Amino acid sequence: MKRKNWGRKTTRCKERNMCSPRMRNKENKGVIDLRRSLDDAVGRLRLFQAHTRGIIFELDSNARIIRLFASDPELLARPASEIPGKTVVELLGPKLGQRHHDAAMRTVQTGQSQSYEYELDVPGGHCYFACDSVAVPGNANLRHAVFWIRDITEQVQVQKKLIRTERLALVGALAAGVAHEVNNPLAYMMLNAEKLQRTFRQLEPDGTSFETLDSVKNGIAMILDGTRHVRHIMGELLELARSDDPIKPVDLSEVVGLALEISKSVWEPSANVYVEAQNLPPIMAHRGRLVQVFVNLLTNAVEAMPDGRCPAENEIVISCKRQGHNAVRVEIRDNGTGISPEDGSRIFDPFFTTKLEGTGLGLTVCQRIVSSFGGDIHYEKVTPQGSLFKLTLQCIQSAALPQAE
Q1: What 3-state DSSP class applies to 353?
Q2: What residue ranges define each of the domains in the chain, with the CATH number in brackets?
Q3: Is residue 291 a contact partner of residue 257, using CB atoms and an 8 Å limit?
Q4: Residue 130 and residue 138 in contact, taking contact as beta carbons nearer than 8 Å
Q5: What is the mean predicted confidence (pLDDT) over 14-21?
Q6: Mean pLDDT for all residues in the chain
Q7: What's the number of CA atoms in the CB half-sphere (13 Å) around residue 174?
Q8: 114, 133 in Cβ contact below 8 A?
Q9: What is the pTM of this model?
Q10: What are the helix (H) ranges across 243-374?
Q11: For 143, phi and psi rounded to 5 degrees?
């Protein structure tokens, strides 16, 4: 009687089963399903990226970038094809890259997530980012780190505007109280100083030397000059605190002409002013307050002219053009000394000034006035020298009016 080799037969059966077409089809189906799942995951990831405006990096255990997904190539510090295989230090430099590298290594070594914010100059401009890192399984039981970097520039800008609005509201409330308290004693000081000045003009020297009278007159003149300066400051503070006045259609050319006439004594001896404006629609504004904006900007332009230069070489150009169907763009350009990049970002802040005797409220008031009309004002430096203020003012729509090229 022959013995049966059950073990060998079983092995052969297994080998035959493993090599059977049915088994191979099953394996192929599993691979296909896995690929579909991976494609679906990549698709969802890309969809997620498209709606988050950000970047996802996967870094290995040595903080080298394995792969990335970017919703916008302009968010990357260099072309996407050059990034895989590099460390974040190689990509961004030691100053900023080291922070990312340290965060990645902490995530890889401890498995703990990291969250922080930073800012960076990219081809699209200066942006703010938020970064979150999460540990994920990698090869050979090593952790990898996935970094999700989101562009939060718009959120930061909105937050800054809210902070600025709150600050202006606080300054406005403070201004109203200070101006009220100062204006009362200021009024009777000016009245008495003016009365004394008129009296001394009528007096004939009677036992009093001309030198003594002149000294008293000069003192009174200085008092009046100081009180007028304080009144001017109080006027700016009250303008800052004033509630929005009702707006109505006004003629922009008329407003510019009136501002030039009011400030003529300031700019005429120091610079040439050129106005380019034609076929402008009425704009929605408060006439008097808009005149104040132009007077302030003209005065600033004159004060920015360099010392020692011939007045004929100083130029201020006011250009007014239609912008689209419902706005007018006004540009006030000068060839003065300009403003440094550091100061340029702060010139609209309350009480910030580069002048020795400035209040730091003029441009803040201008911005508040223009904003109250639904408009916008911002500053640009002119190369090689000078400044450019751009105002956007809302106008009454009219299809019959021509548009600027």
Answers
A1: coil
A2: 9-152 (3.30.450.20), 157-241 (1.10.287), 248-394 (3.30.565.10)
A3: no
A4: no
A5: 52
A6: 75
A7: 8
A8: yes
A9: 0.46
A10: 252-262, 264-267, 287-303, 341-344, 362-372
A11: -80, 145
> Could you identify the residue written with the tokens 């706005």?
327
- Output the six-digit token pair for 13: 């059966």
**Residue 342 in tokens:** 């550091």
* 200-254: pLDDT as tens digits: 776 655 555 556 667 677 777 777 777 777 776 666 556 555 555 567 898 999 8
The amino acid sitting at 45 is: L
Q: How many CB atoms lie within 10 A of CB 132?
A: 16
pLDDT tens digits along 132-161: 888 887 665 678 888 888 888 888 877 777
Question: Given the structure tokens 């090229």, which residue do they identify?
Answer: 405
- pLDDT for 400: 36
CA distance 355 to 296: 14
- How long, in residues, is the chain? 405
Q: Distances in Å between the alpha carbon of 222 and those of 178, 189, 219, 231, 285?
A: 23, 12, 5, 14, 38
Note every long-range contact of 336-341, with CB atoms under 8 Å and residues 24 or more positions apart, other chains counting: 336/301, 336/304, 336/305, 336/306, 336/385, 336/386, 336/387, 337/304, 337/305, 337/306, 337/385, 338/304, 338/381, 338/382, 338/385, 338/386, 338/387, 339/304, 339/379, 339/381, 339/387, 341/381
Residue closest to 75 by CA, chosen among 148, 156, 145, 146 = 148
205 against 59, higher pLDDT: 59
Rounded distance, CA 349 to CA 232, Å? 19
Residue with tokens 């929605």: 284
